[in-house]
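Thread: Modeling a multi-component assembly for a lab meeting

Hi all, long-time lurker, first post. My supervisor asked me to bring a structural picture of a complex we are working on to next week's group meeting, and I have zero experience with this. I have the sequence lines for every component (1404 residues in total). Could someone generate the structure of the whole assembly? Inputs are pasted exactly as I received them:
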Amino acid sequence: MTERVSSPSFSRRILSEVLLRWGARLGIAWIGVLTLIAVFAPLLANTHPLLVQDAEGWSSPMLRFLGPADATLFGAFGLGVLLLLLPGRPFWRFLGWLAGLAILAAVSFALVSPPSLVVYEQYREAEAQGAYQQVIRAPIPYSAKDYLRDYADTGLEAPHGSGDERRHWFGTDENGADVLSRMIHATRIALSIGFIATGIALMIGVILGGLMGYFSGIVDMLGMRLVEIFEAIPTLFLLLTFVAFFGRSLYLMMLIIGLTSWSGYARYVRAEFLRLRQQDFVQGAIASGLSLPSILFRHMLPNGMAPILVAASFGVASAILAEATLSFLGLGLVDDPSWGQMLNQAVQSSTFNWWLAAFPGGAIFLTVFAYNLIGEALRDAVDPHAQSGKPAVAAKAAG
Amino acid sequence: MLNVKDLTIRLKHQAEPLVQGASFSIARGEMFCLVGESGSGKSLTALAVMGILDRGFEAPTGEVWLQSRSTPQNLLALDEPALERIRGDRIGMIFQEPMTSLNPVFTVGAQIMEVLRLHRPELDAKAVRARTLEVLADVQLPNPEQRFHDFPHKLSGGQRQRVMIAMALVAEPELLIADEPTTALDVTIQAEILRLIDRLREKNGMAVLLITHDFGVVAQVGDRVAVMHRGRLVEQGTAGTVVHAPHHAYTRQLIRALPENLPPLPPVPIQAGVKLLEVDRLQVHFPVLKGLLRRPVDFIRAVDDVSFDLAAGEVLAVVGESGCGKTTLGRALLRLIEPTGGSVRYHGQAMETLGRQELRRLRRRLQVVFQDPASSLNPRLTVQTTLIEPMAAHGIGIDDEERTELARTVLEQVAMPADALWRYPHEFSGGQRQRIGIARALVLDPDVIICDEVTSALDVSVQAEILQILGRLRAERQLALIFITHNMGVVEYLSDRMLVMKAGRMEELGRTADVIARPQAEYTRHLLAAVPRVSDHVGRHRVAG
Amino acid sequence: MLTYIARRLLLMLPTLLGITVVVFVVMAAAPGGISALSLVEGQNLEPQAQKAMEDYYNRLYGLDQPAPVQFGRWLNNISPVGFAQNADGGLTGWPHFKVPDLGISFRYGRPVLDLIGERLPITLLLNVLSIPLIYVIAIAVGVRAATQRGQAFDTQAGVVLLGLWSVPTMLAGVLMIGFLASDQFWQWFPTGGLSRRAALDMPFLPQAEIAWVLPVLLVFAFVFAAGFMAFAAKASAALRLGAGVLLGAVGGYAVIQDLDALTSMLALGVGGAVGALLGGVLGRSEWLSLRLLMFGGAGILAGLAAAGWVLPGGITPGFLLDRLWHLILPVICLSYGGLAFLAKLSRSAVLENLTSDYARTARAKGVSEGDVLWQHVFRNSLLPLITVSATLLPSLLAGSVIVEAIFSIDGMGRLAVEAVQTRDRELVLSITLISGLLTLVGYLLADLAYAIVDPRVSYD
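Re: Modeling a multi-component assembly
Sure thing. I ran the full set together rather than chain by chain. Output:
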């Protein structure tokens, strides 16, 4: 019987090639940090104390006010860690995670229902009155929507640290809410918009592009006209139109950003499919009588994914930018915190509120930079000319 | 003229040199051939002499003495401005790929005149132009006045190579370095270019360093030869000695691997009565669309009325130069490209009318192996997956275990080890990948395999192995092969019958031995005469020295 | 070639139609759709008056008709061949040639054509100034990165460019305004708009109170700049380092002194030190173009300063200079993003061509490396840059939206935002049409330019 000798597969090789580059490592590290922040936001920045011991014993206001989204994220994180440790092909593990996520979301939204009335001031009042024997707070004891109404005279404040009765590391925004807390909670929106919008755009682009590339003819002609139309409309303008007319909701924005950015992916997939169709191994697969799904999904698609992955990484960056831009122009989400919206407040009043520009703006910059670094590293890893190994150079030059 | 001593070339940050201790000399007016397989370092040697090695290389060590008008100079010791004066003026160089070696945005005339402006500043504009036209006529480029103003993309490969030669010779250098100048050209053009270089050598009294992998070329035009193997010069001598009485084991191995020297194949009884494939007036025409509404104004007749039969166990060679339609013919037979006319019958059944399902079932019997080992295997799949997938699609074997066993046996038949199953294509060399490609065709147990230039991208020794494997397989399995190639030596060795194509049409069809001995068509005669052979009379019409 | 152009122009029509259909569908499908409600709801009117206004608007603009009819009427208005519209809103007569009518904006009450005519030139001005700037810098950086492949400049430039690309336009604009145009920090630039009010009364060109002052000023600036640049080109590295440190220290000191907030000796010292460091690095740099640019700029500043000290009388900047001064920050804001992408592209194009076969042939002919780069490789490397210029225009138009919003410039971008916010049907559709048209024409021009530059390409 033949022995199995393990050889690194194509994906594994690309992955190790990518990880060689410090840019990718920094980028992935930053995205990892952001993911942790997004998942554990309720634990990091919350007016509801984590644990409270009062006359009636221990209780956890944080848990009581945990929303379905929070619960889903906790579960998803745990599931993700679990699946990373299990063996199996990465593709199937990813699908399993998606399925688990769907189930978790359904269960959470059905079962978890925090009280709808939230009074942030009660904890501070209670503590001032001495009603608590012990209280354990989150590191940043303010929620994103806690407008600090129990304090007089709140509004835009520059950052100030210890020494005052209230500690706002990054200052407060125009409504009095703590900027750092809002930034932490806004991480969820930033990350999820990036992924989901790009995911939608990828799906549409890959399907349409694949059809155009494989079938050519009328399908190709019609598809290309559609691509041209979406390319010729200034994306931002279409986004503005959508958002202005359809109102603002997070899910809608994700959908809209996805719908307006698919044309690039379609072009890439089409070009790759056209190239691959002429490749010998695809012709060989056809000549061997393999079925169409097998040819498309086993032979063509995996070999054409590389430029699309690169584009997707840059696409996530631009999706995050798009959302920030919309928020900046005043067309984003109204109440939920978002980095772009905070940036908008930096120039709203007559003075320049630098902390609202530096910190949320810096967060946007770092995140976009991280994705761009990853995209660059991917591009270099996939491009045969830029390989760090020498064989390509020598082979080209030698006899 | 040129005296190379102990030339060593390495890549930066690498211990292992790519060329080590190469020493040879070329006399004035001599045609010196540097022979070797790919990776032997022969091109690197030439680039090092010119001083145009890529930036990834360390400066070569050793000495390269150029003796021309005045005192001898060590080229490796000169600084860059001095080298720039010598390049193009005292040494000219031409390269392998005429299609990409000319700057596409400048006219032919401008590129040649640039050499004169650099190295003959004393000439005025009129003289420069006159000399350019003169050299274009020297290289026998038809219509030199018009070609002067043309851009390179309007010229064919052979014409571009002539322009390259003109550019290299316009300043009348004493040494011409030709790096595989004819490898990318058609056989008939190849012969003309070689003759041209030889003639110019004689006329100008130039020394020529000709780099090639083809011993036939050496036999035809070479005075002296050096053989390179893995960066070392293993043998040197006059052309006659090296080709007919080689000393070194490697040289002997190379000579033995030439198709004309290979041991004859095991005989195969051909059942002439059983016609596997009947091709009748096959046509593949592509429309040329022009005008506002993209209407077809003309057709490219890639395959035009080709007819032939194929019996079981028979090898039919399809020969022709590039663009003759042989590759299109191969694909049309398999319906990878849809024929626009004529019919192909397999065991009497017409293929063009088959539905998709039936066609898929039939594909098992007609397989194909491709030319380019780099793209013939899916880089994402292991060899095992590549081999068992077609079996699974056609229901061969009960489960994957059994199929893997079958795959292992087939790999054995193509002389590949069993552990190749678990590796990825990029871990193998070109020859090994071709063998895997053949294995992939074999796992379905076909009756016919179409081999589309399967050895054209391989070195001579690797080619020999593949040819012998194919011969053996054919004998064992009664395989019929349609062997598409432009290499006449292979045709002679392997095929029973041959079909000569030109511009989509059949020029000649008959038994190989007959066609070669007594070619009927004019074109076939022309083609056969152009092939350089080792067995040619090796002799020079001038005094060597 | 002509048939190609004709075909492309014809193909534009379905695409333009498609674009307007998409936008119209978005408007019509939205909750609330296109109706007169948005026009009247701002005003506090009694229900009867409100209804009357609604009816008026409905009749005027046909807003109560079903969506496809509205679209049809709009198409009829904009096409050169169509029906006439009578006072009642109905269509009469036979199709005949007429002037395309883009309609009347709901919000402004003025013809759309006028509005666009006012605003479009401004946006075009911004973009037209940005494009050459982007190209020149990107090509310079890209070529140098390619020739210095793998070395310090290449990797550093790569990271810096990627970082620049990642800075969101709004952040850059906000920071620029906040730090460079406010009274809290430096106030070197205006906060917004395109001209000062006073500038509208000024003469176009700068004028001096005493006539001969102006040419002398220019001579000063020119002489100093030329001198500095000659120094930068010829002087040894050590001398340049010293000069750079000196100039940088002076500049750093002056910059900090300009800042009202920081007046301590420490701050001035730090400013001077940082300036000296920067100046030293630039002075020592191997890159000739960069040195010339920096020293030339310093020369001009020094010349102007010296002239200002010596020469009597004042100077009114004039409309032109004032306009340019207002444009500097917006143009920078618009350009820096495109820089990174183009620079990477030109780097890879140059790299590919430097290692190509024809470059090898050129070297074998004895062409020097510098000539191989600028005479042979450069022209071939321009080709992908030309094709990409087509896609540059739409992204610049999008960038204009943000820049115009931040810098309070009344251009097309701002008009677009207002149009969608107020659901102004005519304006939205017209802007879509115009920008779509501009984009497609941009594509066509890029393709034609490519055909001109590359002799291999011919369209038949």
